[in-house]
Amino acid sequence: MISGKFAITIHILTLLTKFPDEYLSSEFIAGSMNLHPVLVRKEIANLKKNNIVESKEGKNGGTKLLKSASNISLDTIFKMTFDTVTLGFSKNTPNPNCPVGKKINENLENLYENINEKISLQLSGITLENFSNQF
């Protein structure tokens, strides 16, 4: 299902791009987003796991980009955030004797696969640096 995780992650990364030589605290980042720092730390943990950022603890601690923003595509960020986008399926098992019910989920899966291919294609042509330059 679609959530705000991609928006949160790209907001974090865009801020880090704007301050490439600084370690930004989760409180600073959260302040930019009007979010609780715990939610920011959760997404930072995912970025660390994927070797996009590094963090250090302590008084002057925080997070900064590990890679150049020009080497990170929005598709990479998207795929770290979601396996795939799905708009959902019916909570009930459709009637297998109905001409629509017996094929609805299969046809929705095909639709969602096409959506994900199009999203990936569009995002793969945009780097974090490209996106960040809009600010």
In words, what does this structure look like?
With 135 residues, this protein is mainly α. The protein has one domain: Arc Repressor Mutant, subunit A (Orthogonal Bundle), CATH 1.10.10.10. The relative contact order is 0.17. The chain has six helices and two strands. The model has no long low-confidence stretch (mean pLDDT 90).
Give me the secondary-structure topology.
Layout: H1 5-18, H2 26-33, H3 37-49, E1 53-56, E2 62-65, H4 74-81, H5 104-124, H6 128-132
Antiparallel strand pairs: 1-2
Helix pairs in contact: 1-3, 1-4, 2-3, 4-5
Distance between termini?
A: 29 Å
Q: What is the radius of gyration?
A: 19 Å
Neighbour order of strands in the largest sheet: 1-2
The number of domains = 1
The percent range for helix content is 40-55%
User: On the 0-100 scale, what is the average pLDDT?
Assistant: 90
Structural class: mainly alpha
| CATH class wording | Mainly Alpha
Low-confidence stretches: none
Largest sheet: 2 strands, antiparallel
Report the sheet-strand fraction.
5-15%
Count of helices?
6
> How would you describe the shape?
elongated
What name does CATH use for the topology?
Arc Repressor Mutant, subunit A
CATH architecture: Orthogonal Bundle
* N-to-C SSE string, H for helix and E for strand: HHHEEHHH
